[in-house]
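name: query_chain
kind: protein
chains: 1
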Amino acid sequence: MVLRIGTRASKLALVQAQWVLKRISTEYPDLELELVTVKTKGDRVQDRPLSTIGGKGLFVKEIEEALQRKDIDIAVHSLKDVPAELPGNLYIGAMAEREDPFDVIISKDNTSLEELPKQSRIGTSSLRRAAQLLHHRSDLEIVPLRGNLDTRIRKLHFLDMHAIIVAAAGLKRMGLVDQITQVLPADLMLPAIGQGALGLELRLDDQQTGTMVTFLDHYPTRVAVEAERAFLKELKGGCQLPIAGFGQLTDGTLSLDGMVADVRGKKVVRDRVSGLPEEAKALGIALAHRVLEAGAREILEEIYER
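structure:
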């Protein structure tokens, strides 16, 4: 039996897929495994911010299509890239243990966010990151920044920017922890839905593969991310909107923080719910209703009108 694992071709995506491959190989030493790279729309279009390209699943759609065609048997995704609604014949069969979910600053001269000079230029193409940054420091200038993780770090040193914001998880997986200037706490920068977590997407009709990869599923990660994704789905949002959510399972209680902001960071609606981990999806839905009633509905309507 040959098991084909589909992934994007970026260095980080390959590191993540290789990690999954090694874990499966260790569990099933007689199994033949193959990595298959797939180029997505998000990889092809590099000259525009993601929020202007349009559509959901910019980094997963083509991989899902390969999975549906049976060109691959497993799709490995960064869950923050996966839309809240999956194609009807696919599902997330395992969520591996989450890496550090937070965002970090990398600055040219190792200067923290608070110490950056006024009007500093910060590189990010994430509306979520930009909105929260501007809410905290309205004097900052946001510079659109695209590219793979190593490309963005390289651009920091060659373009007119003071700092960039990226996910801690990617840096840690690529052995680049020494690049981090400052970890941004959740009260300042709430992470993206699913940030730091890997998802293995499978076909519903492939029960054999589904059974094989269950050993990779990490329950605390699954319930936290399921709550976050339920929050996103109820808001009818995508990963290119200024929406954030972060779930944590601690001592048997699942807490979920959620946020919706306008793109300028002037209006921010944020709230928290908690309950049993078995209620993960219900908690996400309940939190979505709370933020919608508190002003998020008007914010999202204004964004959609654009």
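note: The CA atoms of residues 1 and 301 lie 50 Å apart.
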